[in-house]
6-phosphofructokinase (Thalassotalea castellviae), 1348 residues
Amino acid sequence: MTKNIAILTSGGDAPGMNAAIRAIVLAGHRYQYKIFGFYHGYNGLINNELKPLAISDVEGVIHRGGTLLKSARCKEMRSKTGVSQAVNVLLKNKIDALIVIGGDGSFNGLLAIHEQWQGQVIGIPGTIDNDIDGTDFTIGFSTAVDTALSAIDKIRDTADAFERVFLVELMGRQSGQITFNVGVSCAAEKVLSFENFNIQQEQETLEQISTQIQTAKQAKHSSFLIVIAENLWPNGSEALAKKLTSMTGIDCTLCTLGYIQRGGSPVAKDRILATKMGVSAIQAISQGKSNIMVGEQNNAICLIPLTQAVEHNKTVSPLLIDAQENILALSKQTDAY
Amino acid sequence: MTKNIAILTSGGDAPGMNAAIRAIVLAGHRYQYKIFGFYHGYNGLINNELKPLAISDVEGVIHRGGTLLKSARCKEMRSKTGVSQAVNVLLKNKIDALIVIGGDGSFNGLLAIHEQWQGQVIGIPGTIDNDIDGTDFTIGFSTAVDTALSAIDKIRDTADAFERVFLVELMGRQSGQITFNVGVSCAAEKVLSFENFNIQQEQETLEQISTQIQTAKQAKHSSFLIVIAENLWPNGSEALAKKLTSMTGIDCTLCTLGYIQRGGSPVAKDRILATKMGVSAIQAISQGKSNIMVGEQNNAICLIPLTQAVEHNKTVSPLLIDAQENILALSKQTDAY
Amino acid sequence: MTKNIAILTSGGDAPGMNAAIRAIVLAGHRYQYKIFGFYHGYNGLINNELKPLAISDVEGVIHRGGTLLKSARCKEMRSKTGVSQAVNVLLKNKIDALIVIGGDGSFNGLLAIHEQWQGQVIGIPGTIDNDIDGTDFTIGFSTAVDTALSAIDKIRDTADAFERVFLVELMGRQSGQITFNVGVSCAAEKVLSFENFNIQQEQETLEQISTQIQTAKQAKHSSFLIVIAENLWPNGSEALAKKLTSMTGIDCTLCTLGYIQRGGSPVAKDRILATKMGVSAIQAISQGKSNIMVGEQNNAICLIPLTQAVEHNKTVSPLLIDAQENILALSKQTDAY
Amino acid sequence: MTKNIAILTSGGDAPGMNAAIRAIVLAGHRYQYKIFGFYHGYNGLINNELKPLAISDVEGVIHRGGTLLKSARCKEMRSKTGVSQAVNVLLKNKIDALIVIGGDGSFNGLLAIHEQWQGQVIGIPGTIDNDIDGTDFTIGFSTAVDTALSAIDKIRDTADAFERVFLVELMGRQSGQITFNVGVSCAAEKVLSFENFNIQQEQETLEQISTQIQTAKQAKHSSFLIVIAENLWPNGSEALAKKLTSMTGIDCTLCTLGYIQRGGSPVAKDRILATKMGVSAIQAISQGKSNIMVGEQNNAICLIPLTQAVEHNKTVSPLLIDAQENILALSKQTDAY
């Protein structure tokens, strides 16, 4: 039996979204389904910006950043009216299943639709932040980490040449996944994230970092990189940089990597993850599944209830935090020789 | 109690080996161990090319390809005399534990040493081929996949511009891990590897691929990429290219990516994997472990018997093979519109 | 007065061709010209594969490798019949000016058309080989050099780790521009190209290189890279690698970089060069110019007779050759300390 | 006759400085000169941080960003006392020639030394800003442009996906070289730099850009990138972003690329330029030259008086400005179809 399946991408774009769209289209055609795309996220759903997606539409897109379906934030989806309009458009177009590639905000929209609509709803986790439960990795995360890492490798050159202190602020919303993974990879002298910072110990943390900076300076360590999560420090990372500068008497400069972290050609891991998820989404639809997210756990694809995906229980690997805090960060302990 | 710990890198070099050495040195110093390096692999062990490794020796190396300890193939280790010499050097230097970063050949050497020596022996899987059992990933694999992918993305440009057929040969020895992961990531029209090719059906395979190429050509598909594993095709990949050219009447050109796959700055995943494994190796030594390999399964570090690591039972994910063969490769099925 | 202007890309593709097409389209529309593209090079001209090029067709293409107009080799253009057919198509479509982006073969085709056709003919040098006279750089050359360089930087990692000898063969047809520029950039121990190799001294050269390799080995120099131009060595680069291996007793391995050198996102220099040339081509057409190539000399755009462009008098900078041969290559002279 | 030659790197670091140091060391040894390095720029000269530079010190550095001699800003050199101290250190170490790789500030220091010291002083232009007279390019400029371009290519992905307006601020101090070259290369919808902005027409410019943004939005142009030079806009680029947001009612977001522009592995052009300049500096010393800068004009090395180098008369190519302003930027003119 054929089905009409619609896709949309929503929330912050993430490298690999196009690979997921491609996989959905290829797998969908294999199942004789008709595949459509709503452009501009939920706005396009509400406004009925619908186009069929042929196989030729997804040729030559697997390696491109961004999303060919465009994305957008959509306030209307937070209101009942907006959701009703979305449902009407789905009904009008006789859509049987809706696949949304996005983050937790996007999934909340999907849950709202599910309450009013009989069709199948499937989520695919596409966000660089890797803050979705029920999947070890989200599409875009690996690319964002490598992009940030390449940028910091360059900053390290200057930091080393001038023996300077830099704070580098990374994206991730309320999650330290990017920050910790990049921090360990770039051999940061200090990683500051939600997982190891307690706002009640702000002063203590400041004093600890100041001491570390001064110790490193005295040891003529060539440079000092602090990798910090956005949204972490009270009053912002710039305030922290200024505070550290005044406390240590050493110039501490902030670099905010910003939007380069969202773009770029996806790395292999994101293309593969996106491809597997896209294929699995179509398979799940063929099996009549609904109200689920396609995830990957322990290298195997899994389907989890959509409600679980947005619970925000995901944590950074304690081994990684422990290694960074207790072994890697303190690189200036005395040599045993 | 302090220990004398020696490291060596052996076999083909892999991006991330330096990150592993760094982690071992940092963690070792944390445990008050003395860390040494044998240079030039097992040759250096036999010839006693030993140097202490201070923390300053591993600053600024996490992002570098190759191995600061140098590597080499070593025939002597296949003889009893060679192993005895190695053991003598370990005894003479009062080494308590030996960590070898390498592939299965390197681990066989380590097993031979273990038979004659009381010290602790620890393996860390470092090879781009990802053909070691007991670990989901080996150090260097992720970087090699991304390096090959970037190269093929460029070849795709030319293939598209000229609507040409290219065969791209990838490394991996007897394993299809690199080939399948790269093949899916680059949207190859065909992946040819140990997992989906039966030498008894050579003729059948040739005819199938020829038909696919001609079908694609008639459909004016812009290009056709065949990704093939080294050591797969009888008489070599060049012979296959010539055969396909003569069978189809269409020029099929071979590109052998070669040694660029072994080098380059490691991606974040390899730096993190290497860091975790290096730290865990020291922890395992502190717990008196021996004759084990540090692996990673389901995103968690594990210790497995060294003998299991070299069994060659590892397989490419069936989901990936199935998706490539049955959904992604046949991109020229008729559109449903 | 409006004009109908057609573009085609021909010969080997080169990164930056899309940037040139974009500039022609934007500048052409600015002059109120109608811009068309013939697809698939001269084949498309002969077969009348013509499409209008709107501004929206060239959005989002400046950073893409390959050519959106496709390219192809075209045997028919070497015959009078082919040229006549091409001219007929130009007349039939009332084309006033034809811009060809390509190398010397492509320009010879353009010269043949010019003999039979009253319209304006303009060449833009697009080839990675940089073997066109009358312009310091051709579109694609800078990107190809950087692509080859990145690949060799990775090969250097492995060469250093194993203290190995590698020969790396580079593209360039009969020109050493790529070879010398890459050779100097990657700190090659030896550069072998048309400019510094005399086939009559084959034996002498072999002995000289063998001695250099052995000297380097004795001095424990970590690696030895020979960068060699394709089409240079009698019987091919593989034969040279084998000969050096047997003469030195040291394994000399060949890496052929191949088609990766043609693709990839163009570097800034190629995008800017292509943009300037595209804009200037339209300006030249508006001024009634014909039978010329747009070149760049001493950082300024110039127009030169098309016949001069294909004379093959271009040489590699003697300073570069001299520096490489007499100062940089002999890196194993004794230190003055 | 042998000479003692000292090198230092000063001012902002630039990719390719290591390649220049390598060339100086190799060429110097060829001439039987003794080569030394002062570490940490002029500070190291004043404090006598001198080390000999052997050939082995510059192996494996050509591809590394930063500077192995370290750099630093140095206030003391602005005072007579500082300069006298520097001269004393040069005399004490019997230095015959001093080569400084840096920007205009560094050259002013060199000029001050020249007034009090009989030795030969040679400048090599190393700064990403390309704001030195007498040379078409400075070491580091080409790499910085490509680094910024790669970053903006990624930002474009997000901008396209969300159809957003981004301002991207680039380095360059008081020069628009980076800004214009990057702006043209990334197909910026608007380039704002010293060369095309008049502070007296601030309001006019604001209104013009606002109109362009709104026109593009209405035309459903996918994204709008404004590339802006640092130090250009009164009260800073953030203020401009806010103003445009309030004037257009469309969110205009600022991305400051920052320090990633200074680091990274140098591109081929910078490695070659640095190599040629380093070799030429030694040749100039052998010829008894002093008080000069080694530059490159029209692809040929030249020597110019050091005083000319710091005159700040360099301008961005008018062709580039004109093309950007009048042809490329206005990509929303009506199609001729």
Remarks:
- Chain A has eleven helices and eleven strands.
- Chains A and C do not touch (no CB pair under 8 Å).
- The first strand of chain A starts at residue 4 and ends at 9.
- Confidence is low (pLDDT under 50) at residues 331-337 of chain A.
